[in-house]
């Protein structure tokens, strides 16, 4: 596994998150009015959520990934439900990144975790029925790396990750699609194979969750991903891509919009920057869609496609997260595992 691909995955996720934070939950029209030539680089935020924050700041997406990586490093490459709970509780203690940026569903779920009220009875799993959102998918990229080319292991990790906060078939299906895509992108591969990995993750994880009694409403993601990927092939410009996401696929927080949006972008361009820029200019959940897109495209191309100046800006803007140290340590852990230094 190439170190450049690990760095590309993680800095790609951080880059997409921090750039998308500028336009988070703005409409496509509001973004176009504020940035007539497009939102192409770091600018003061126009989002009601991130307005006034330092350019380069990451939100709940990559900050939660940082806390996840710290726990995986602590446990020397192991991951399970208990570690997922520890990571979410550590993140929840961060008054800035969790307090300011985390979503209402996640905050509600964390309260249940704190009170030891995770509902393990599938017959009474109503706590998770509304959480068919991308709160698991937004932070799953480190597990795609940890799975080391094993799609089924990526799915297992994803299910454990979603256990504390997003434990239903829709949320897990979306997160597994991203995790398997990141997993495949660590290889010398192609975009078609990465999309196939995402579809596999979406289908297999949904079937597993349904069989355990954690099914929920909503369209099957594999169909939406296929449709988005076909439509993406018809897009050739930034305007084409933002129109596809905003007008046809959707850019909301539910998995059946935000996850297909990522795969639509993957099929529309081979260019890292163009894919991420389309996400941040399309409106809606821009930071999460751009972060997931950045993680997959960064893994596919390697860290070289991310401007060094932007990496420096991200590290400087998020000093309390110690992003550079966490990513270095995580890459070292993966290399040690690859050499057979850990079981």
Please count the beta strands (DSSP E, at least 2 residues each): 0
Helix count from the secondary structure assignment: 17
Mean pLDDT: 94
How large, in whole angstroms, is the Cα Rg?
Answer: 18 Å
Sequence stretches where pLDDT stays below 50 over 5 or more residues:
none
Largest sheet: none
- What percentage of amino acids are in beta strands? under 5%
Helix/strand class: mainly alpha
State the end-to-end CA separation: 17 Å
Order of helices and strands: HHHHHHHHHHHHHHHHH
Estimate percent helicity.
Answer: 55-70%
Molecular shape: globular
Would you write up a description of this structure?
The chain is 62% helix and 0% strand. The radius of gyration is 18 Å and the shape is globular. It is mainly alpha-helical and 343 residues long. It has 17 helices and no strands. It starts with a helix and ends in a 5-residue tail after the last helix.
Quick take:
By secondary structure, the chain is an all-alpha fold.
């Amino acid at each position: 596994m190439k170190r450049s691909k690990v760095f590309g995955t993680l800095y790609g996720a951080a880059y997409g998150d921090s750039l998308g934070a500028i336009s988070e939950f703005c409409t496509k029209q509001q973004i176009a009015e504020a940035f007539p030539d497009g939102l192409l680089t770091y600018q003061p935020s126009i989002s009601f959520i991130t307005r006034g924050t330092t350019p380069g700041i990451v939100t709940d997406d990559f900050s939660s990934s940082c806390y996840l990586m710290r726990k995986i490093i602590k446990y020397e490459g192991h991951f399970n439900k208990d570690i997922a709970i520890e990571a979410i509780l550590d993140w929840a203690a961060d008054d800035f990144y969790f307090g300011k940026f985390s979503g209402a569903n996640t905050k509600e779920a964390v309260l249940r975790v704190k009170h030891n009220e995770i509902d393990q009875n599938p017959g009474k799993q109503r706590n998770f029925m509304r959480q068919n959102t991308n709160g698991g998918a937004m932070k799953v990229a480190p597990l795609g790396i940890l799975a080391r080319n094993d799609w089924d292991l990526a799915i297992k990790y994803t299910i454990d990750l979603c256990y504390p906060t997003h434990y239903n078939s829709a949320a897990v299906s979306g997160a597994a699609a991203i995790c398997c895509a990141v997993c495949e992108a660590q290889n010398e591969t192609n975009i078609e194979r990465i999309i196939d990995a995402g579809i596999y993750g979406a289908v297999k994880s949904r079937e597993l969750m349904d069989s355990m009694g954690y099914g929920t409403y909503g369209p099957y993601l594999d169909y939406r991903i296929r449709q988005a990927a076909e439509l993406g092939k018809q897009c050739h410009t930034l305007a084409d891509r933002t129109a596809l996401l905003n007008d046809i696929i959707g850019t909301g927080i539910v998995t059946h919009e935000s996850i297909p949006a990522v795969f639509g972008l993957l099929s529309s361009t081979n260019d890292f920057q163009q894919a991420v820029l389309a996400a941040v200019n399309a409106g809606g959940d821009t930071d999460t869609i751009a972060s997931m897109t950045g993680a997959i495209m960064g893994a596919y191309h390697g860290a070289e496609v991310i401007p060094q100046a932007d990496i420096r800006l991200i590290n400087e803007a998020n000093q309390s997260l110690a992003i550079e140290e966490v990513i270095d340590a995580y890459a070292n852990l993966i290399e040690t595992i690859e050499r057979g230094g850990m079981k």
